[in-house]
Specification:
CATH architecture of the largest domain: Alpha-Beta Complex
Helix content: 25-40%
Number of domains: 2
Largest sheet: 7 strands, mixed
CATH class of the largest domain: Alpha Beta
Strand content: 15-25%
CATH topology of the largest domain: Quinone Oxidoreductase, Chain A, domain 1
Radius of gyration: 20 Å
Order of helices and strands: HHEEEEHEEEEHHEHEHEHEHEEHEHE
Shape: globular
Number of helices: 11
Bound molecules: NADP nicotinamide-adenine-dinucleotide phosphate
Number of strands: 16
C-alpha cells in the first residue's frame, strides 16, 4: 500500500504539504546515532535523545539518536516530554506509507504532553513550567478545514513528540488544565479531537442520540467517552468479546462482535432502531454495514482511511434514509481547547491499553500493530 492508497485521496493534500513548510526548519540533525539502549542518556550537558523515522521501512528502522538540545527559535516552544501516544497513522508514517518524502531525521508522533522548558522569541501564549499539549495541525486554529494545514502537521511534515525534549510550533501549543492526567492529555490532540470534531462539530451530538463507533482503537474509545459525556447511547463493535466486555464496563450500551456477526449493521439497526451518528473509524471497507446500521437522517463521519475494497461501496440507504456522509481530518486548535475543557469538567480519562518506556518504542509500535489491546498505546518518556 502506498501513501495515496492509505489516504484514499488524490495528491492534493500532499501538494499543500510539499509547497508549504514541510521540513519547517524543525528537523534537526542528530549529533550521534545508536540503537535503543546504546545511546547516551540525557544529561545536564545539553544533550537529549530523540527517535527518528530513519529509513522508514518498518518499525525496526526507527533510530534513537542523541543530539544537542535545540534552542527554540521564533514562534517555537521547547518541551520536556512526559508522555506521547501512538496512532494508526504513526505506523504508516514509520513504514513510509504516509507522505514518504520526509527526511530520515523526522521525529514522529502527533500527540503528547510535557512541560515547557523554554520559549522562543514572539511566544506569548504559554510560559516556562506550564504543562502543555499541541494541536496536530498546528496552524489550523479555527474555522473550516483546508488541506494547506498539512504544511505544519506535527509528527509528519514537521517534527513530533517522540523525544525527551522536542521543539513544537507555538501556534499549536495549548495549556493542559489541572485535573487532566498525563495519560489522557497525551492522547487528546490525535485520537481525542478527531472523535470530538466528529461528534460535536459535524454530527452535533445530543443527549439521547444513538452513536455507533467501530472497533476499540484510539479514536473509537475516545468516541465512547465523549458520546457518553454528551448523554448519548453508544453502540460498539469489536473482534473480541473480552474487549466488548471492557467497553460495556466503560459505559457502552450495546456491543456486537463483528467477526461472529457478519450482518452486524442489520443487527444493530434491528436492536437499536438505528444509529443517528456513526463514527466510521475503519473506512470504506465497512461503510455499507455502517449505513445498514443507520436510522433515517443519520450522519456517517468518515474517519478511518482503509483503502477502497475491490467491491465498491453500494451505500445502502443513502437516498431512502437521507443519510449524510462527511469526512474529517483531526481537528483545529479551538476544537482541541473545547475538548480539554470538556475532559476537565467531566473527569474523562483516556482508555489506555499499554504503556512502554522511552527505549521500548519499537516494541510499542509492534504491540500497537498487533491490536490485542483496546484504546491507546502510550510512551512514558520518563520510564
Ligand atoms: N480522519 C482523521 O482525522 C483520523 C484521525 C485519527 C485516525 N484516523 C484513522 O482512523 C482509523 C482508526 O485509527 P486509530 O488510531 O483509532 O486506530 P487503532 O487504535 O489502531 O485501532 C484500530 C481498531 O480498529 C478496529 N477494526 C479493525 N478492523 C475493523 C473492522 N473491520 N470492523 C470494526 N473494527 C475494526 C480494531 O478493533 P478491535 O480490535 O476491537 O476489533 C482495531 O483495534 C485509522 O484508519 C486511522 O488512520 C483518521
Amino acid at each position: 500500500m502506498n501513501r495515496r492508497e492509505f489516504l484514499g485521496t488524490t495528491a492534493a493534500a500532499a501538494g499543500g504539504a510539499a509547497s508549504g513548510l514541510a521540513g519547517g526548519g524543525l528537523a534537526l540533525a542528530a549529533t550521534g546515532e545508536a540503537t535503543a539502549g546504546g545511546a547516551e542518556a540525557s544529561s545536564a550537558s545539553g544533550h537529549s535523545r530523540v527517535w527518528q523515522v530513519g529509513a522508514a521501512g518498518d518499525f525496526d528502522t526507527l533510530r534513537l539518536a542523541t543530539r544537542e538540545t535545540p534552542r527554540p527559535g521564533r514562534d517555537e516552544v521547547l518541551v520536556d516530554v512526559h508522555m506521547s501516544g501512538l496512532a494508526a497513522r504513526d505506523q504508516a508514517i514509520v513504514r513510509g506509507w504516509f507522505l514518504e518524502d520526509k527526511p530520515p531525521t523526522r521525529i514522529p508522533l502527533s500527540e503528547g504532553v510535557g512541560t515547557v522548558a523554554a520559549v522562543g522569541e514572539g511566544v506569548t501564549g504559554v510560559a516556562v513550567g506550564e504543562r502543555v499539549t499541541c494541536a496536530h495541525f498546528a496552524r489550523w486554529i479555527s474555522g473550516p478545514w483546508d488541506p494547506v494545514n498539512y504544511a505544519v502537521d506535527v509528527g509528519n511534515t514537521v517534527d513530533g513528540w517522540l523525544g525527551e525534549r522536542v521543539l513544537l510550533p507555538a501556534s499549536g501549543v495549548l495549556r493542559v488544565p489541572e485535573g487532566v492526567d498525563d495519560r489522557t492529555a497525551a492522547t487528546v490532540s490525535g485520537s481525542g479531537v478527531t472523535a470530538w470534531q466528529a461528534l460535536h462539530e459535524v454530527a452535533r451530538v445530543r443527549a439521547g442520540d444513538t452513536v455507533l463507533t467501530l472497533g476499540t482503537g484510539g479514536v473509537s474509545t475516545w468516541g465512547l467517552l465523549i458520546a457518553k459525556a454528551a448523554g448519548a447511547r453508544v453502540v460498539m463493535t469489536s473482534s473480541s468479546d473480552e474487549k466488548l466486555a471492557q467497553m460495556r464496563a466503560l459505559g457502552a450500551d450495546v456491543t456486537v462482535n463483528y467477526r461472529r456477526h457478519r450482518d452486524w449493521g442489520e443487527r444493530i439497526h434491528a436492536e437499536t432502531g438505528g444509529a443517528n451518528i456513526v463514527l466510521e473509524t475503519v473506512g470504506r471497507i465497512t461503510l455499507d454495514r455502517s449505513m445498514q446500521a443507520c436510522a433515517n437522517n443519520a450522519m456517517v463521519v468518515m474517519i478511518g482511511t482503509t483503502p477502497l475494497p475491490e467491491r465498491l461501496p453500494e451505500m445502502p440507504g443513502l437516498y431512502v434514509r437521507n443519510l449524510g456522509l462527511r469526512a474529517i481530518s483531526n481537528g483545529s486548535r479551538d476544537m482541541l481547547a473545547a475538548l480539554l475543557r470538556a475532559v476537565a469538567a467531566n473527569g474523562i480519562e483516556a482508555v489506555v491499553g499499554g504503556v512502554f518506556g522511552f527505549e521500548d518504542v519499537v516494541a510499542a509500535f509492534e504491540y500497537a500493530a498487533a491490536a490485542d489491546h483496546a484504546g491507546k498505546v502510550l510512551i512514558d518518556h520518563r520510564l
